Predict the 3D structure of the following.
Amino acid sequence: MKMAKKLLALVLTGVMAMSMLTGCASISSRQVADELEGMLKAANPKATVKAVDDDLANKAVKAAKTDDGKLKVEATLKNDVKTALSKDNTDKYVWYTYFTAKDMKKADKAQKIANMMTYKVGTTMKINTGSAVNAASVKVGDKTTGITAGDKYELSMKEFTIGTGKDAVDYVMFVVTCKAVEASK
């Protein structure tokens, strides 16, 4: 009986370990999320960033590419990604960016994302809700004014390639969301 309990405990430990390793977010996206969290704390000391599945990033990549797999021209790409990411996200702010992934460290990726999401007023960093793709349509209940980004951010990340062979270019798409809340008075 003792041996059966030990074996069961070992199996349970293995199952729990595997469930952690096969979570929805990749290790790479969790590392970028950790770096980004540290950077966003300069603008919001309570900020947390959690890496989530790549659903939103996949949606953005799909909107950014033409039917033949090339990147759309910039103006069309921005409009199509904005439309894809704004749908069903009126209660949260949504930011996105993409860039080539060649020779970029996790901290460099996080810094590019943080630069898009923040701005500086004097020596103070602030979250730039105005740079969210859906900034004009975000609301809390019926309120569209007096709202801001909360403290819990979610990062969705997807690597993708445009072109083939020697012409192939690797990119990374990042989508960050944060639930909108009423601003503190």
About this structure: The chain is about 35% helix and 30% strand. The first strand starts at residue 48 and ends at 51.
